[in-house]
Amino acid sequence: MNDFLKLACERYSVRQYSNKPIEDEKLEKILKAGQVAPTAANRQPQRVFVIKSEESLEKLRFFTPFCYNAPIVLMMCYDRNVSGKAIDGHDSGIVDATIALTHMMLEAYDLGIGSVWVRGYDSRILERIFNLPENLVSVALLPIGYPSQNSKPIQLHYNNISIEDMVTYL
Ligand SMILES: Cc1cc2nc3c(=O)[nH]c(=O)nc-3n(C[C@H](O)[C@H](O)[C@H](O)COP(=O)(O)O)c2cc1C
Hints:
By secondary structure, the protein is an alpha+beta fold. The chain has helices at about 5-10, 25-35, 55-65, 95-110, 125-130, 165; strands at about 45-50, 70-80, 115, 135-145.
C-alpha cells in the first residue's frame, strides 16, 4: 500500500477531541490544502470561515450537536457569483467546495488532526446565524482537532461498499 492509500484507509470521522489546541502553522497548512484544490475552470469559488472564537463556537453548539467538542470548525461555502457554470446550467460550486474541504480533511489527518464532515443540519439557519451574504452558499462544516485518547472509529467506518458494487466497466 502506498502512503496516500494508507492515509485514506486509516482516516476516520473523529467525534471526541482532546483539549490540545491546533497550532497556527498546522491550521495554515490545512487552509493551504483547500487553496490548491482543483475547481471548475479554476474559478476558485471556495470560501472558508474559521470558527474558533468562543462566541462563534457557542452559536454553533446551540445550532447542532455534530460539532462535538472540536476547538475549531471550518465552515465551507462557495460564492455563487464566482463558481463555474456548465453548458447545461450545472453550478460547480458544491463540487468545488467539496473537493477543497476533502483536501483539508486529508491534510489535517496527515498532521495528526482529526475531523468529521458535517451536513446534518438546516443550512438556511446556519447562513442566518453567521449573516452570510446572499452570494455565499454554505456546503458543510468540518470540526477539526486532536483526537481524544478514547477516540476510535464507529462501526459505520468499516462498512465499505464492495468494489464490484461500486464499479462498472463499460
Ligand atoms: C456529506 C457528509 C455528511 C455527513 N454528516 C455528518 C453529520 O452531520 N454528523 C456526523 O456525526 N457525521 C457526519 N458525516 C460522517 C459520516 O457519518 C462518516 O464519514 C461515515 O459514516 C463513514 O465513516 P468514517 O468517516 O469514519 O470513515 C457526514 C459525512 C459526509 C460525507
